[in-house]
Description:
heterodimer; A: 100 residues; mainly alpha; 3 helices; 78% helix; elongated; B: 639 residues; two-stranded antiparallel ribbon; 26 helices; 4 strands; 4% strand; globular
Amino acid sequence: MVPLSWYVALSSLLFLIGLVGVLIRRNIVIVLLCIEIMLNAVNINFVAFSKYQHVIDAQIFVFFVITVAAAEVAIGLGIIIALFRLKETINIDEFNILKL
Amino acid sequence: MLPYLLIPVLPFVGFLVVGMFWPYFRGKGHWIAVPLIFASFFLSLKAFFDTLNGPSLHFVLYDWIHSGHFDVSISILIDHLTAIMLVMVTAVSALTHLYTVGYMKDDSGYDRFFAYISLFTFSMIMLLMSDNLLELFIFWEAVGFCSYVLIAHWYERKPSWVAANKAFIMNRVGDFGFLLGILLTYTTFGTLTYSEIFAKLPQHLHDTIRVLGAFNGLHASSVITVIALLLFVGAVGKSAQIPLHPWLPDAMEGPTPISALIHAATMVTAGIFMIARLSPIYNASPTALSVVAWTGALTAFVAATIALTQRDIKKIVAYSTMSQLGYMVMACGIGAYGAGIFHLLTHGFFKGLLFLAAGSVIHALAGEQDVFRMGGLGKIMKITFPTMLIGSLALSGIPPFAGFYSKDLILSMAFQDGMIGHVFWVIGVATALMTAFYSFRLIFMVFSGKERFSHDGHHGHAPHESPVVITIPLLCLAALAVVAGWLGERYDIIGYLAQDMTIPHAVGKPELSESALKTISVMAGVVGILIAFVMYGRPSELPQILARMFQPLFRFSQNKWYFDELYDLVFVRPTIFLSRLLWVEVDKGVIDTAVNGVASFCRFGGAAMRRIQTGQIQNYALVMALGLFGMVSLYLLIK
């Protein structure tokens, strides 16, 4: 059987990839995808621990996460389209209107 | 009650009407102000005769302050002292109002001027009528304010407003002492009403106070003495006694009617009136009385010596005023309040006359004030000359003019006051001699001899007698200057006034008889006139020779004993230096730097911090991730 630490390592790796993607990519669609990767890294953790600890709660939680992620993507894409209409670009560097 | 109430109210109405609508009067302000002031004068006469043989009148108009044990009401008190002062003040004021119609004609501030002299008359009347120290103080300040605005009447000219500032600031010094005196009176007696103070006086005769207690001073002085001296500081300022006198001669920058009304006849006598009014307090303190007497004697003498060499016609009269005020204060100091008030009244008439006559001369010469550029005016000014001569004779104490009776009374009272009194008497006689000398120096310089003015110099018209509105007040005042003294003697004004004022101690028998004393002082006056005649009555080199022989003394007198220079050096310059230091070094240097420093720290700090906020979500996320990583690492490390 694959040891728990491998799952955790895989999950951490995926989370880091997602995080770095969020931080350095300029394409806003890729950034959204990276956020999804981070969420799924967490899901792997949940499932792995659920299996090894014999607790079912975590797997239920995963369904919630997937549901929320789906909703989030729907809203996120909507926001991206609105932003694109506003700025005619999907480069995240252009979206700095939070600054005065 | 109503007629008495109208005495102050009528001038006040005049002030309100003319003052509020003065731009609409266009030189017609006197139609309001002059009749009102004359009405006030006749009502004062009525009040005088009402109280002549009766008790004093006292009405409370309304309770002004009623707080715990502190009770102050605005009241009207007409006793003998007030009644006779009222007659003098309203008479001189009414005649001055009339005179102003001619003198200030075509002045741009004509109506404003009437508004202010009406306000002044109102304040002075209320000052006389007050029955408590606070009411007195308020109107004391009000007359000071009127004096200020009237000296600065021609405010476009620098000397006017400088003189006005000087008068105001010097009076502030005196009034500060006066206010302290009032506060100490309240803490001692628990009341400010005259009658209650006098009633409680015997209980506090031996109270003491440590004046320097705040600095651990142990010397205890009598409360009554301290009160009397503090109140006297106010009188020193208001009545132009040494050392707070220099404002009075400078105040001559104002229009002449003001010099006559405020700075000769009425306001400057407020200090003497106050001392006479509070005579029981002064009687209770021999120390204070002797300070008062010495201040008066010194002022009389110093002012007379300064007047000897002045060139400005109004300054000469101003210094003679100061000298006569010194006489009055001296009289109060030796306990002869009645004589002091008597001299105050006669002086009010003849000094008002002298000033108005001097104004008439200045008017005739279109603004010339230097007596060395006058002369020979006696031929031209057929009314001004005799009236001014009467005024000068009265001032010199020549019988039967008014000054003779009152001044002689002061001198003989001084002589009867023991050894110190003899010293005062000598000072008084010397001053009388000098007074006669400089008065007649003025007369000879202005009215006799060659004409030293240029006929076409000033405004292209020859000197002329003044119009009738100017000469009528002169004639009225001249008549009063002739008869006032005799009337006072005939109807026993001293006995009349003594009903309100107590004499501190029994008067001893003089070594010289009354008539001998009178002869000596009249002789002093005559000798003064003769010296003036020898030096100035005919062409003579004597004045120049004497001036050269006594060069230092001459300069000392001409420069007014260097009082202005001394004050400039001791008070004005250090104050200006300190102010400039505080302004440039402390205010601009320290405070402004600190305030601006805080502002620019915030500005530059903000500008630096602003760079962190890029608006890039990814930067924020990076910081968040690093922070989270840092916190988790820290947690693991510690664990």
